[in-house]
Design a protein that fits this description.
Layout: E1 4-11, H1 21-37, E2 42-44, H2 79-88, E3 91-99, E4 105-112, E5 118-123, H3 143-146, E6 156-159, E7 162-168, H4 175-182, E8 188-193, H5 209-224, E9 227-232, E10 235-237, E11 240-242, E12 247-249, E13 255-258, E14 265-272, H6 277-280, H7 286-289, H8 297-300
Parallel strand pairs: 1-2, 2-3, 7-8, 8-9
Antiparallel strand pairs: 1-14, 3-4, 4-5, 6-7, 9-12, 10-11, 12-13
Helix pairs in contact: 1-2, 4-5
The protein binds 4-methylsulfanyl-2-ureido-butyric acid.
Length: 307
């Protein structure tokens, strides 16, 4: 038996500050059409796919940043993407900045089914970077100023004839993200990212960005017997170079498709969701082999405690 979902990882090149939403939506629709040509059931777009990565600038009055956020989804400007996807019978996953009616700001990703219905909304859990202006940096990574962390955590939803989970960028570096979804039987995890090559707090990590990216997604896939779809917004955006290397990772931990540019590029793979059971039914049979009785520290403490 096999349950095949053909997935497109729709990597994007940079979105500069003066690019309009309408221009960006046109690019997304082009990628969606490429996905249709490749026979995709689902196309995954990056984190903050509608705008430039605005947390690289700090502003004292956050309301001056409201224009980077979406207050409704779909909206008049994003509706053409929903319409085209429905017409092509392709689902999609889209990352964007969300401003709620009661004033909360989240880094959000939605999952849309082939019939155009929004089946799930995920809000980023692990918010990296800093809260305050750090003027000595070459660029800011003030996500902790612009977004509050989700209190909803990691869900898994029935969609695309399988069990689909989502995470966003920095979430992929944390094994807990994958495991919480693994414990809900996840079969495919969708993850958009914006990863600057230059890591200001420790530049020795710059050369390792690609290695760390594949390291975490390949191990997360393998250790939880899940497909992982990692999708970048790469290239030089407003002077900041960001990692491409979007990839589709099998439950074996193997990379089955990978982007070779840092621009708009669609890669795809036929993902057999039944392949997950080869891992979750053997080495990673959680019910048989996990030892939650000795994992208490994982949820009872946050930082390191030295006895
Ligand atoms: N967007 C995002 O989460 N980027 C982070 C950069 C970490 S450095 C502040 C990432 O983990 O790739």
């Amino acid at each position: 038996m096999s349950r095949i979902v053909t997935v497109g990882a729709a990597q994007m090149g940079p979105i500069q500050k003066d690019h309009t939403r309408t221009e960006v939506i046109e690019r997304l629709i082009t990628l969606l059409r490429q996905g249709h040509q490749a026979g995709c059931d689902l196309v995954v777009f990056p984190e903050l796919a509608l705008t430039t990565f605005f947390p690289r600038w700090f502003i004292d009055d956050i309301t001056q940043a409201d224009h980077w956020y979406e207050t409704e989804m779909p909206s008049p400007v994003t509706q053409p993407l929903f319409d085209e996807a429905k017409k092509l019978k392709i689902g999609f996953c889209l990352g964007y900045a969300e401003l709620t009616t009661d004033g909360h700001r989240f880094n959000t990703q939605i999952l849309v089914e082939r019939d155009g219905s929004i089946v799930a909304k995920y809000r980023k859990v692990h918010i990296p970077g800093h809260e305050h202006n750090e003027p000595d940096r070459p660029f800011q990574h003030a996500e902790r100023y612009y977004f509050e962390p989700s209190m909803e955590g990691f869900g898994v939803w029935k969609a695309f004839d399988g069990r689909i989970g989502m995470m966003i960028c920095n979430d992929r570096r944390w094994p807990e993200s994958y495991r919480v979804m693994g414990l809900q039987g996840v079969e495919m995890i969708l993850c958009g990212y914006n990863t600057p090559i230059h890591y200001v707090p420790d530049p020795s990590q710059d050369i390792l960005q690609g290695f760390h990216n594949s390291l975490v997604m390949q191990s997360g896939a393998y250790q939880n017997g899940s497909w992982v779809i990692g999708v970048a917004k790469g290239g030089v955006e407003e002077g900041v170079d960001s990692l491409g290397q979007s990839m589709i990772v099998a439950p074996s931990g193997q990379i089955v498709a990978q982007a070779f540019t840092t621009g708009d590029e669609l890669i795809s793979a036929r993902c057999d969701l039944d392949w997950c059971a080869k891992y979750t039914g053997t080495l990673f049979d959680f019910e048989r082999y996990r030892r939650p009785e000795v994992y208490g520290r994982i949820t009872s403490q946050r930082g390191v405690v030295i006895d």
